[in-house]
């Protein structure tokens, strides 16, 4: 600005020299970079070089992006299967994800994913921590040496009303997110689209009856993953389906023998 510009005379203002994009060519390069960063945020929720969001070094972004995507999906998943008032979110990291210092951005992604199913697309990585605080949700970041045999592991634990729900995720082949544990039950499910999550007593015929109900309703099953710790005891299942399951169909599933809980999760 000009030397006599009123703004620079304020004690609260510190002026620094502008060192970049001094030529037309440089300005074009900067403009392209800004547009690419805006596209990354609008399409994938990836924030780069923001002044009010933890930054990830440019050279680490290729590694960070799939983890950010995973953290958002885990947050959205756990928010939709939790029953009760949210009071505390514990975000725990283990393995290589800790080595590069990218996890603060992942925590923001997890909070954003947690709140979006409730509040919609107005939630983003910039305002998510403030919104969580306003809603009385305490966020705790934790580090662990228990990666359950995975190279990296992100574990979310959501607490409230004397209840706790947990979900863990990792990356397969460096960029393919997977949910690998829910409430202590091992499983491997792709967090994508519509997911029918349910718990049941491990008895013959349970899955077949659910498949029949979905088939009669015209809902196609794209994938099925099951998890249990002991034969005959409680088990979990995640079905990826190609379309939403109507509530009346969900009620039929909930009414089946041996079904203890069923919820449609929307990660589309």
Automatic annotation (TrEMBL):
Pathway note: Amino-acid biosynthesis; L-serine biosynthesis; L-serine from 3-phospho-D-glycerate: step 1/3
Gene Ontology MF terms: phosphoglycerate dehydrogenase activity
Protein name, entry field: phosphoglycerate dehydrogenase
Record field: catalytic activity: (2R)-3-phosphoglycerate + NAD(+) = 3-phosphooxypyruvate + NADH + H(+)
PROSITE patterns: ACT
Organism the protein comes from: Thermosulfidibacter takaii
Signal peptide boundaries: none
EC number(s) given by UniProt: 1.1.1.95
Domain of life from the UniProt record: Bacteria
InterPro entries, sorted: ACT-like_dom_sf, ACT_dom, ASB_dom_sf, NAD(P)-bd_dom_sf, PGDH_ASB_dom
Pfam families (UniProt xref): ACT, PGDH_inter
ACT domain location: 195-268
């Amino acid at each position: 600005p000009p030397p006599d510009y009123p703004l620079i005379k304020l004690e609260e203002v510190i002026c620094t020299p502008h060192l970049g994009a001094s030529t037309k060519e440089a300005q074009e390069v900067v403009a392209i970079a800004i547009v690419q960063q805006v596209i990354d945020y609008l399409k994938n929720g990836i924030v780069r070089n923001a002044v009010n969001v933890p930054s990830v070094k440019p050279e680490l972004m290729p590694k960070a992006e799939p983890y950010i995507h995973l953290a958002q999906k885990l947050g959205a998943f756990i928010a939709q299967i939790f029953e009760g008032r949210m009071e505390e979110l514990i975000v725990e990291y283990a393995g290589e994800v800790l080595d590069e210092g990218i996890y603060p951005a992942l925590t923001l992604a997890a909070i954003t994913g947690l709140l979006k199913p409730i509040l919609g697309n107005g939630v983003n990585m910039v305002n998510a921590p403030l919104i969580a605080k306003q809603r009385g949700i305490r966020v705790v970041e934790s580090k662990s040496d228990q990666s359950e045999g995975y190279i990296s592991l992100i574990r979310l634990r959501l607490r409230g009303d004397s209840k706790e729900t947990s979900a863990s995720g990792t990356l397969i082949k460096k960029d393919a997110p997977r949910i690998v544990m829910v409430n202590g039950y091992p499983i491997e499910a792709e967090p994508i689209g519509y997911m029918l999550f349910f718990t049941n007593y491990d008895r013959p015929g349970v899955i077949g009856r659910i498949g029949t109900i979905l088939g009669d309703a015209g809902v196609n099953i794209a994938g099925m993953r099951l998890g249990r710790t002991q034969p005959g005891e409680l088990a979990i299942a995640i079905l990826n389906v190609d379309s939403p399951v109507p509530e009346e169909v969900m009620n039929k599933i909930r009414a089946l023998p041996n079904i203890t809980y069923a919820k449609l999760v929307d990660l589309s």
